[in-house]
Write a structure and sequence with these properties.
This protein is mainly beta. It folds into two domains: 179 residues, no CATH class; 99 residues, Ubiquitin-activating enzyme E1, FCCH domain (Elongation Factor Tu (Ef-tu), domain 3, Beta Barrel), CATH 2.40.30. 9% of the residues lie in helices and 27% in strands. The two termini are 20 Å apart.
Length: 377
Amino acid sequence: MRRKWPFLLLAFTLTVGLSVPGTQEVRASEGDSQPSIDRVGENLSLGTDGRSRLYPNDWYPGFKDEQGRFLHDFSYAGYRRGETELPKTAKNKRIDVTKSPYFADPSGNRDATQAIQKAIDAAVALGGGVVYLPKGTYQVNPQDGKDYSLNIPASRVVLKGDGMNKTHIYNAQQNMKNKDIIRIGNGDWKKTGISAKLRKSVTDPTVLLPVEDTSGFAVNDYVVISFETTPGFLRELGMQNKWSSRLGKVEPLFYRQIVGVDPENKTITLDIPTRYPMKLRDDITISQTADPIVEVGLEDFSIANIQNAKSGLGEDDFKVVGTAGYEADNAKAVNVIAVANRGFEILTPINQLAIQITTCYPRVLFWIVRRTSLWIM
């Protein structure tokens, strides 16, 4: 049975109501009314019991305060929507990166990038597998013409070490601007050409979408839900004077899997509720995509980047060529692209490594990827 535990650190919404999957009909409206953003932070002090007013002891999916504010139901987060235990890797099916024909150096003295990547590619060719990094330190670097050090481009591949204090991946390149240490993905979403427009505006979180036509859609399809950036959308966010350059651009809003199609009533049912109002004004489009990468894991190792020795970490130094801020701009430890149902169970958040690269601490720090810490389904 699903546990309904929201994460209180995640932002609440100002929209009214909540549709619980399978229990209520979707609320749809043609209007564009929405509570003002000026109400953010209003009357949000903790209750006498020290709990958030949006998360009382008797909280339930759909609970809202007198102003219509509520916490989203984030119980869908995690591997397979949090409904399945993380899988265990088979010890007898490992590809050891230190063995023939790979011979990755576990001392950290020589670049092991090509050896590890060769082992990953071998696992991909087999349809999946465990790429095993025994105890040691493995130096990696983005190779010529690449904007990443290591890439997992296909499903069912696990990168596994001997433990967070035993196996270390060490990226030795200082200038990591717009680069990743580990990339999971093989390009952006690939649309199939099958799409449908939203038939009615939907103001509340819901799994039920009213569409103009369900033709071509089927259960288990993956879809990207996109919107056009309109003046009304920017006004609602208070960003009309800051994001005007985005006017007219089509942006992805949600990535979901279809669990039900009703041609008669012209509805599509999603696996996870939407998180934001979707209005006809913004030309909401549901587009079928090719199947994404699934069942990828990172286990039992720590990861770090060398210090950037240059100065320049001011607010706008990311614009100044030759500064540490510029060379660390948009650097990522792990970049996940077009992968379904991302789930995290992390001792130290993955994105803190990106902070390590950006802030350039005076020594190398290894950020921990705990056993079964990142599994992507």
